[in-house]
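Sharing a chain and its predicted structure for anyone who wants a worked example. Both blocks are below, sequence first, tokens second.
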Amino acid sequence: METAVNEVVSPADALYEKCAQRPAGQIFFQRDLSNMQVAETMAQLTVLLQELCDRHLLKLMTFEGDPCWKLRSREDADKYV
């Protein structure tokens, strides 16, 4: 996704783009997403994750009892709207 210099990208979209740079199918845990340094606090990260889940761009899952997320393409997310 290319953006113009003066275009503002929301923090949720910035997090999505950082995830999209990783290999397809990667599972993200809270520590992975926190280490991307898009959100300053866990509360902010939670809000961003909820927004991305609400937009169907992230799928919430669990692995061994821990929450994790999987990225969906924008095209796949549009199918859920």
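Comments welcome. The domain at 11-78 is CATH 1.10.10.10 (Arc Repressor Mutant, subunit A).
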